[in-house]
Specification:
The chain is mostly helical and about 325 residues long. About 75% of the residues lie in helices and about 0% in strands. The protein has 15 helices and 2 strands. Strands 1-2 form a two-stranded antiparallel sheet. Helix 2 runs antiparallel to helix 10, helix 7 packs across helix 8 and helix 13 packs antiparallel against helix 14. The two termini are about 15 Å apart.
Length: about 325
């Protein structure tokens, strides 16, 4: 109940922020925190609760982003239709990847997911006749709910907040349901779980597919919010690592952890980028060094993540 109370306060503050904050930069930061938190939560479904650590989740993010962008630019369809198409494609890809990599564990599964995301990166960057290749796709702005075109940042805050709350509830279900306990058993000791009659392989495939579908939803929203889809970004390994880091730093296999981790990462990255941006071209990337050291310290001294640290406090 204490964890749910903290989560309620976090989401309530996010809901009230647009009523008192008018600065577009701060609202943009809030949108990104909620969106990265939702993406880390989607990763957490497979990587945290099922133990299927993926470093190629950007594949599903990219499928969602490209589905929304391509259907809108080529055929003039609504981003909502593109979002549904991305969910279908990502679910199918998640089922296929989960089934083919079913017998792989640990780093071998992670390597398989990286390979999958890089295959999609090559396809998206080389298929110029359909995806415009490495040039990327500008997403047209069509105002209104049907076109997901909102100039007001406050509307985006509430839209992404609804997705974030939905993903939080999904994680709460996995924390307290029978299916969630079965996933935890598979994560801790798959052989023992199979011995007591748990269909571990089927559960892992379903978890990866569900995580893929949720990640795709966030990818479609991100494409509409940013207005541009770049294959080298949406299918990058760096992006997949960011999803995982949010959950790991915040508290893996916890409902609140991904959002705490995303808040820490986004705020720290924004501050360091601004603080070290004007110190010269030779040191322009120094914020990445400080950023990496800060992450190492958190992992070293708070191994259970921020959610675990709050639980002990």
């Amino acid at each position: 109940m204490a964890r749910h109370g903290v989560a309620g306060v976090v989401f309530l503050v996010a809901a009230l922020a647009p009523l008192v904050v008018r600065d577009a930069y701060l609202l943009d930061s809030l949108v990104l925190i909620l969106l990265w938190g939702a993406l880390s939560a989607a990763w957490n479904v497979a990587g945290g609760y099922a133990g299927q650590v993926s470093l190629g989740h950007s594949a599903f993010f990219g499928l969602g982003a490209y589905s929304a962008a391509l259907l809108g630019t080529r055929w003039g369809l609504s981003p909502w239709i593109g979002l549904l198409a991305g969910v279908v494609l990502s679910t199918a890809a998640g089922l296929a990847l989960g089934y083919l990599a079913n017998r792989l564990r640990g780093p071998y599964f992670a390597l398989a997911t990286i390979a999958f995301s890089q295959v999609l990166l090559i396809v998206a960057s080389r298929w110029r006749g359909f995806t415009q290749g490495s040039e990327g796709i500008p997403v047209p702005f069509r105002p209104g709910l049907w076109g997901l075109g909102f100039a007001d940042k406050a509307v985006w805050v509430y839209l992404v907040l609804a997705v974030a709350v939905g993903l939080y509830l999904v994680q709460c279900y996995l924390e307290g349901s029978r299916r969630g306990y079965q996933l935890a058993a598979v994560r801790e000791d798959e052989d023992a779980a199979q011995a007591i009659g748990i269909a571990s392989r089927r559960l892992k495939v379903v978890a990866v597919a569900a995580s893929a579908a949720l990640t795709s939803i966030c990818g479609a929203l991100w494409a509409q919010y940013v207005g541009f889809v770049d294959p080298f970004y949406v299918f990058s390994v760096d992006l997949s690592v960011r999803f995982a880091l949010g959950a790991i730093l915040g508290g893996i296999a916890t409902a609140l952890g991904p959002f705490l981790g995303a808040c820490l990462i986004t705020m720290l990255e924004t501050y360091l980028r601004a603080a070290f941006a004007g110190i010269g071209a030779s040191l322009v990337g120094i914020y990445l060094i400080v950023y990496g050291c800060a992450l190492i310290l958190v992992v070293r001294f708070v191994p259970r993540g921020l959610a675990g640290w709050l639980a002990r406090s």
